[in-house]
Structure prediction request, 133 residues.
Amino acid sequence: MTVTNCESLYHYIEFVERVRESQRKGMAVSQAINEAVDYAIQHNFLEGFFEEQKMYITNSLLTEFDQELHDRCTYEDGIAEGEARGTQQNAIANAKSLLKLDKLSPEEIADCCNLPLEQVLALKEELESVQKA
Prediction:
């Protein structure tokens, strides 16, 4: 069975593709959805379902598209946050290693590792207290 043999599925695919194509052309999500719903009504998609449920469909799709945007932004923010956290942890580990070598001043280590001098001094105290214990 092909998609064109299942009219309901064909209409749904055509509707979704119409929304996506409008967005690719720069149309706002809400405008693209409204245009696709109007098109579906004009062409009697799903035997009048779009006409009967226009507000419900539009609101549901706007909520879904907003959720997709939210999820994508949250994911991207999480990646950036994770990268920043990893960079910070790496800088701290490098500073501890350099402090253990005892060949550079805390100022030089802070400069090399892009850490505040206060943080390097705190790491130095932490390492010294561990060595005494």
Notes: The two ends are 75 Å apart (CA to CA).
